[in-house]
Amino acid sequence: MSQTHPTIAAIATAPGRGGVGVIRLSGKDLLPLAQSLSGGKTPVPRQALYTDFVDEHGQAIDNGLLLYFAAPASFTGEDVIELQGHGGPVVMQMLLQRCLQLGARLAEPGEFTKRAFLNNKLDLAQAESVADLIDASSQSAARMALRSLKGAFSQHIHSLVDELITLRMLVEATLDFPEEDIDFLQAADAEGKLAHIRRQLVQVLAGAEQGALLREGMNVVLVGAPNVGKSSLLNALAGDEVAIVTDIAGTTRDTVREMITLDGVPVHIIDTAGLRDTDDVVERIGIERSHKAVQEADVALILVDPREGLNRKTQAILDTLPESLPKIEIHNKIDLHGGEAGYVSRETMASGSLSVHSTATELIALSAKTGAGLDLLKQALLKQVGWQGESEGLFLARRRHLNALQAAQTELDNATLCAPQQIELLAEHLRLAQLALSEITGEFSADDLLGVIFSRFCIGK
Predict the structure, then answer these.
(1) Three-state secondary-structure class, residue 179
(2) 151 in the same domain as 83
(3) Which of 23, 136, 162, 256 could pair with 83 in a Cys bridge, judged by C-beta atoms 3.0 to 4.6 Å apart?
């Protein structure tokens, strides 16, 4: 086995029993290893070979299909072998040990995809989309991850980088030949090119921000005084009895989490323990966790009993919420007092006896028990995070992608502020914008960044 290109092996299928189990190997010159595993048979590249998988004494460990992919026509760009046998944990471990006995070592998390990246089979954005496709929590997220895997996101980034390189060439020409009477920038419409790049970047960033919602989802917390119907609303949104509902205050003594999907967007709903002073040790721990969930939330649903309004207990809870946290006020239990489901205007509320929380962006009356008004609430949640619906222009972006796009946007904005006599500053801002965009696809990534990214993969990926 090559010391510079060690052969790696891993079980590529999920843990547990299954009808089929797969072991994947990648390395250099793996044909002899394939022959040893198959008892001397020589596989034809890209053709399935049905064979026994044998140990060092020629005894069969298992039987199944052996597939051999000769470099560079493989996922990693190296020789790749896949052993498809029976999916029992014991036989899989026996077969893996045989591979290690033949000189392979256990693959590190994400190492197969990392080798594909290092061998120019995938760029960094495509490599990350492999993990995103596996982890997709909705059909929309899976479709967007597959588009990124096929290079849709990368193509937009490469297009922006190519246009930046062209513009930088013009600026550098002006710097290199200052004595010439030719104004490279004006003659080539550099200002128009920069404006075009900025417009394109805005579109890509908008698509990436929407895609980030598909990947990460939104965190919604239900807050309010005890016994206002938080658990009932969670059950209604989830469509299942995931939280215990009673008339006894303090029934929910810990945070209860449930994930639902709204128009393809994962929504993580957290039913908090009723925020109140209590001497119950267990309930107090749950309340502390509730406060932590509130700090990490994207939206807060403030539940109010319309018969009481924003009483002293509820107001005390609202005073603990971050001012910047978007809030939707929910007037629950309309089935008990004959109210109608729907949006409630502030004018309507002000004309009555109830006060309205000043920072709530929407007020919705509903019944968690009957489901009246739930559709309006779901629409309000999607509106709150700016979801515009799935389209071909979306990319399943990660936070680092958004950071890079925003950094590039800042540099391009700064570039537009450079006067004609500030060519050196213009050149530097364009260079930094290109550097930020190139980090997305991996042209300018530090080794420690690569280590963090690939360490989050499955062992067999």
Answers:
(1) coil
(2) no
(3) 23
The count of structural domains within the chain is 2
Residue 246 marked as a ligand binder: yes
227 is in an annotated binding site: yes
Q: What is the pLDDT of residue 191?
A: 87
Q: What is the Cβ-side half-sphere exposure of residue 150, based on CA atoms within 13 angstroms? A: 8
Does 272 show up as a binding residue in the annotation? yes
Burial of 437 (0-12, 13-18, 19+ CB in 10 A): buried
Q: Which H or E element spans position 84?
A: strand 79-87
Q: Is 232 annotated as a binding residue?
A: yes
The answer to whether 310 and 331 have CB atoms below 8 angstroms apart is no
Q: Are residues 375 and 427 in the same domain?
A: yes
Ligand-binding annotation for 248, yes or no, is yes
Residues 241, 211 share a domain: yes
Q: Are 53 and 67 in contact (CB under 8 A)?
A: no
What pLDDT does residue 227 have?
A: 76
Any idea which residue has 């479709």 for tokens? Answer: 143
Shared domain for 87 and 147, answered yes or no, is no
239, part of any domain: yes
Pull the structure tokens for residue 192. Answer: 């128009």
Q: Are residues 53 and 147 in the same domain?
A: no
Indicate if 132 and 111 belong to the same structural domain.
no
By residue range, what is the domain housing residue 53?
8-121
One domain for residues 152 and 291: yes
- Residue 139 covered by a domain: yes
Question: Residues 409-451: pLDDT tens digits?
Answer: 999 999 998 866 788 899 899 999 999 999 999 875 555 556 6
* CA atoms of 375 and 377, how far apart (whole Å): 5
* Domain identity same for 153 and 107: no
Q: Is 183 annotated as a binding residue?
A: no
Q: Please tell me whether 378 is known to bind a ligand.
A: no
193 known ligand binder? no
DSSP string, 239-299: TS--S---SSTT---S-EEEEEEETTEEEEEEEPPP------HHHHHHHHHHHHHHHT-SE
Where among 104, 121, 138 does a domain terminate?
121
**Ligand-binding site membership of 24 (annotated):** yes
249 marked ligand binding residue: yes
pTM of the model: 0.75
Mind listing the pLDDT tens digit for each residue in 168-204? 888 877 776 665 544 667 777 888 999 999 999 999 9
Query: Which tens digit of pLDDT belongs to each residue from 30-70?
Result: 999 999 999 999 999 999 999 999 999 999 999 999 999 99
Per the annotation, does 271 bind a ligand?
A: yes
> What distance in Å separates the CA atoms of residue 174 and residue 427, rounded to the nearest whole number?
10
The CATH number of residue 240's host domain is 3.40.50.300
Choice among 61-70, 111-120, 135-144 with the minimum mean pLDDT? 135-144
